[in-house]
Design goal:
single chain; five-stranded antiparallel β-sheet; disordered C terminus; globular; 11 helices; alpha+beta
């Protein structure tokens, strides 16, 4: 049903004429009673409606619907399905899947509702709500959610993909702590999924991503999180090898209260970077220790683990920000970019991090490489345990994640994807062959295979069976990173 490329066909092409007619019909059906807006190609607001965070994604959908209510979402899905169009969902635009001329781009960014229940310790959000809003709203109550490295990413999309955050070893995946979901299914019905209602859908959405429905509301747990002990150690690239080897030797003995990662960065000379870092090749160590709660609004310090002091003794950091940090400022640790930019990425997982793997990793990302970032995150702890209410999150048994990214055109080279893949190829001897859903990369055959491996046969077969039942036409295939259309619409090839 859906296109996988943004290229528009010639206007004389019968297929293009059919898609144009379908788009106009869908627009006519959706507009009456719509709280939001509809934009067709050629209209003044169409191009502006395509903009998102990742500028490397070129959207050229049949039309754009900017939803303002759950009913707008349901109306759009029903109309698209009835006229042979797919639906791609976008909130912040960090998504890895462009929409093409056989798709409706459904913008849910205006559905940004947020309610905090400090007694139940929950938050209820719409699909357009970013983590920044949840952090700010929870802080006065001493509560925080399990956000990712960037507070500017949407809560719902991040969580449906699993959600691996800076405190993952302590609490697990964000998807493990969802209480309920309001969902528009591929046939346009509005339903609720929870541990006791539509249980299969509840299982699949938490870790299987947007392939099964469009979430219009999500309720999830908050935790007593006022302060963490954390920050970043920045080392010159000349010290990368001894620091990373020392990190590797110490992390197997870390308590679950500690989450940490390392990254080789080739930083561009951007003015918003700290002056000592502009245009520099560095190794960064990110560190977060959960301090706990004493039950009276204070903190219950976990014992120091020695990792940070040990690394400081290996080499003097260029910059050292490790200390007590209000949880509302957790995004400062990774300091992910906030402004839109073109970015090319690919993720994977490691079964082990040997001494040889460290050497190969560093050699694969030399100073001056077009690869801007190559990161290894430590897994284990709560990440490796199943959720209390089972879900479809993949890749719990890996030792580490591997995530590699580069600036795309026009800021980066035209062959950025090849440079990113070369790092993964170099690390192949230590890779599991799988990836976490949010890290896998663009919606292509390589990502589909990585996720199939990570899911494992049982989970994968169950997800495929559910897609055949819930979305036999592949209406939501554009919203799924793992559902490459082949054979059965919206389902990866066997």
């Amino acid at each position: 049903m859906s296109s996988t490329t943004p290229a528009a066909a010639s206007l004389d092409d019968p297929t293009a004429q059919h898609l144009t007619a379908s788009a106009s019909t869908v627009a006519d059906e959706v507009r009456p009673g719509l709280a939001g807006t509809v934009h067709l190609p050629g209209e003044p607001a169409y191009d502006a409606a395509l903009e998102g965070f990742n500028l490397a994604l070129v959207h050229r959908p049949a039309l754009v619907v900017r939803a303002a209510s759950p009913e707008d979402v349901a109306r759009t899905v029903r109309a698209a399905a009835g006229h042979g169009l797919g639906v791609g969902v976008r909130s912040t635009g960090h998504s890895a899947a462009p929409t093409g001329p056989a798709d409706v781009l459904l913008d849910v960014s205006a559905l940004d509702g947020l309610e905090i229940d400090p007694v139940e310790r929950t938050a209820t959000v719409g699909p357009g709500t970013p983590w920044r809003a949840v952090l700010d709203a929870g802080a006065p109550h001493g509560l925080g959610g399990l956000c990712g490295s960037s507070p500017h990413v949407g809560v719902v999309g991040y969580t449906l993909g699993g959600g691996l955050g800076p405190l993952a070893r302590t609490f697990g995946f964000a998807a493990d702590h969802v209480r309920s979901l309001d969902v528009v299914t591929p046939d346009g019905a509005l339903v609720t999924a929870s541990p006791t209602r539509n249980e299969d859908l509840f299982w699949a959405l938490r870790g299987g991503g947007g392939a099964f429905g469009v979430v219009t509301s999500m309720t999830f747990d908050l935790f007593p999180l006022r302060t963490v002990h954390g920050g970043t150690l920045w080392f010159d690239v000349a010290d990368a090898a001894p620091v990373l080897h020392r990190w590797r030797g110490l992390v197997p003995d870390l308590p679950e209260s500690v989450s940490t990662s390392v990254a080789r960065l080739n930083l561009p000379p951007l003015p918003d970077l700290p002056e000592p870092m502009r245009g520099r090749a560095v190794l960064v160590v990110r560190y977060v220790r959960h301090l706990g709660d004493d039950g009276q609004g204070g903190r219950d310090d976990a014992p120091a683990d020695g990792l940070v002091d040990a690394l400081r003794s290996v080499a003097a950091p260029i910059l050292d920000t490790v200390g007590d940090l209000p949880y509302v400022r957790i995004g400062e640790i990774h300091a992910d970019p906030e402004d839109p930019m073109p970015f090319v990425e690919r993720g994977g997982q490691l079964r082990e991090l040997s001494a040889d793997a460290v050497d190969v990793f560093l050699a694969a990302v030399p100073p001056g490489s077009p690869v801007m970032m190559a990161e290894i995150r430590l897994l284990g702890g709560a990440v490796g345990r199943p959720a209390a209410v089972p879900n479809a999150v993949a890749g719990r048994d890996a030792a580490c994640t591997l995530f590699v990214g580069s600036l795309g055109v026009p800021l980066g080279p035209p062959d950025a994807a090849a440079h990113v893949q070369a790092v993964h190829d170099a690390m192949r001897p230590w890779c599991t062959g799988g990836s976490l859903l949010n890290f896998a990369g663009p919606r292509d055959a390589a990502s589909a295979q990585l996720l199939r491996t990570a899911f494992g046969t049982g989970t994968y077969d169950r997800l495929v069976s559910m897609r055949r039942r819930l979305d036999p036409l592949g209406v939501l295939a554009p919203s799924s990173r793992w559902a490459a259309v082949q054979g059965v619409p919206g389902v990866p090839a066997a």
